[in-house]
Design goal:
Strand order of the largest sheet: 1-2-3
Oligomer: single chain
Catalytic activity: Endohydrolysis of (1->4)-beta-D-glucosidic linkages in cellulose, lichenin and cereal beta-D-glucans
Structural class: mainly alpha
EC number: 3.2.1.4
Helix content: 40-55%
Family: Belongs to the glycosyl hydrolase 9 (cellulase E) family.
GO molecular function: cellulase activity
Number of strands: 7
Largest sheet: 3 strands, antiparallel
Organism: Vicia faba
Length: 488
């Protein structure tokens, strides 16, 4: 009886902690509106020829000659953030997370589902181009040093559009395996939307995974001048290989990929990281759906996933993150909201798996039920959308108060519709340095977010706080769909 009493008290304490952490004057939230805008954001990040259906109309065609230096047509894809480089490693993770959002929550998206499909296909169409030749993967387009020395609209770019390629002799297992994961996950997400296209994605995913696995090596070494220090791989490439295999197994049910996952998961350790660089926590949550009710295959996936949850719960004795006074989760490093959105996604997905299997998570004397995970995720979502000490939404265009001076080239400068003349490399500096709000609204963009004291500096100079990225938004798409359904 004493153990049960401790369990009940622990759960109450956990809920009390989350309630106290969010005791700020609440603002009314519309998760459906936020969902619509979170997907619209990706249209503002498009590169290449824009379709007639383009809704963010101040953006125009850009980077149409990408790939010409190697006689390939590589127009399309996404700019990752506020610059004009196409970094394929985070772009692939973005595509994977958009696909996972649709797989888990697509049935809750309503009319936004079609736009989510379009966002995924904008990535996969591009990655089919990037992987068209066997044993070759286009890993990036655009010299970041050249790009970062200019403040230019993507439509005006005259900086170096160098194409970076990984091959059998200059491998890049992390970027290749993440592209394989994106293609495999998207093949599931799009299977009912376009069966033939879905099958093509899966075939290409297998081809690219084999290349990544059979020719191992880091793109840090092969194309380091292009990716470092911007998107260096700090965690090695094995997590991407296991992640790619996990998605291929989910997409194909081929036991070969399951055996690969089981054989290599132990080498990763029970790490709780998840984002564009580290896939450890995502692997365990993804696999947990398959093994949660299968004791013979639970190790180490379930214990690792449980460790993730215990590292996040505010009252857990093994908590590995901090929370601001306003209740926002924090990890070391820039652009903190990338962690908030990714972990919120994993919390909800794992809670749903737990609910189906009548499972709880034990963190010392704290016992967490699925509802506790959902409640924690909700505190994070609500904080991002405005229930925070500043009563500020960190999604551009959502709510009454949101960032006005985001670090984003296209958003700061007039559209070609308004100013058709070419804006040269340094001619954009006056827009960057202006104290006025950005000229164009990058609707739905989630910025890097506030500091650990809940303060926010609305300044283009403060890159870590004011720059949006595709991989901050992508997990939030699924999260918002879930809360839209729960709180219409």
């Amino acid at each position: 009886m004493r153990g049960n009493k401790i369990s009940i008290l622990s759960q109450r304490s956990l809920l009390l902690t989350m309630i106290i952490a969010t005791m700020v004057k609440s603002v009314p939230l519309n998760y459906g509106d936020a969902l619509t805008k979170s997907i619209l954001f990706f249209e503002g990040q498009r590169s290449g020829y824009l379709p007639a259906s383009q809704r963010m109309t101040w953006r125009k065609n850009s980077a149409l000659n990408d790939g010409s230096d190697i006689n390939m047509r590589m127009d399309g894809g996404y700019y990752d953030a506020g610059d004009n480089v196409k970094f394929h490693f985070p772009m692939a993770f973005t595509t994977t997370m958009l696909a996972w959002s649709v797989i888990e929550f697509g049935d809750l998206m309503g009319p936004d589902l079609q736009h989510a499909f379009e966002a995924i296909r904008w990535g996969t169409d591009y990655f089919l181009k990037a992987t068209i030749y066997p044993n070759v993967v286009i890993a990036q387009i655009g010299d970041p040093n050249s790009d970062h020395s200019c403040w230019e609209r993507p439509e005006d770019m005259d900086t170096s559009r160098k194409t970076y390629v990984v091959t059998t002799t200059k491998p890049g297992s992390e970027v290749s395996a993440e592209i394989a994961a994106a293609l495999a996950a998207s093949s599931i997400a799009l299977s009912k939307n376009d069966g033939r296209y879905s099958r093509n994605l899966l075939l290409r995913a297998k081809q690219v995974f084999d290349f990544a696995n059979n020719h191992r090596g880091s793109y840090n070494d092969s194309i380091g001048d292009g990716v470092c220090p911007f998107y260096c791989d700090f965690n090695g490439y094995m997590d991407e290989l296991v992640w790619g295999a996990a998605w291929l197994y989910k997409a194909s049910n081929d036991i070969t990929y399951w055996n690969f996952v089981k054989s290599n998961i132990q080498s990763l350790g029970p790490l709780t990281e998840f984002g564009w660089d580290a896939k450890h926590a995502g692997i365990n949550v993804l696999i947990s759906e398959r093994v949660m009710n299968d004791p013979s295959n639970q190790n180490p996936f379930i214990s690792n996933a449980d460790n993730l949850i215990c590292s996040l719960l505010p009252n857990s004795p093994t908590k590995a993150v901090t929370y601001s006074k306003g209740g926002l989760l924090f990890k070391l490093g820039p652009s903190n909201l990338q962690h908030v959105t990714s972990y919120s996604f994993l919390l909800i997905v794992y809670a749903r798996y737990m609910q189906v299997n009548h499972k709880t998570v034990n963190c010392g004397n704290v016992v967490a039920k699925p509802a506790d995970l959902v409640n924690l995720a909700k505190t994070q979502v609500d904080y991002v959308l405005g229930n925070n000490p500043l009563r500020m939404s960190y999604m551009v265009g959502y709510g009454q108060k949101f960032p006005q001076k985001i670090h984003h080239r296209a958003s700061t400068m007039p559209s070609i519709d308004v100013y058709p003349k070419h804006i040269k490399c340094r001619d954009g500096d006056k827009y960057f340095e202006s104290q006025s709000p950005n000229i164009n609204l990058l609707t739905g963009a989630i910025v890097g977010g506030p500091a650990e004291d809940d303060s926010y500096q609305d300044s283009r100079f403060n890159v870590t706080q004011s720059e949006p990225t595709t991989y901050i938004n992508a997990p939030f798409v699924g999260v918002l769909a879930y809360f839209k359904q729960r709180n219409p």
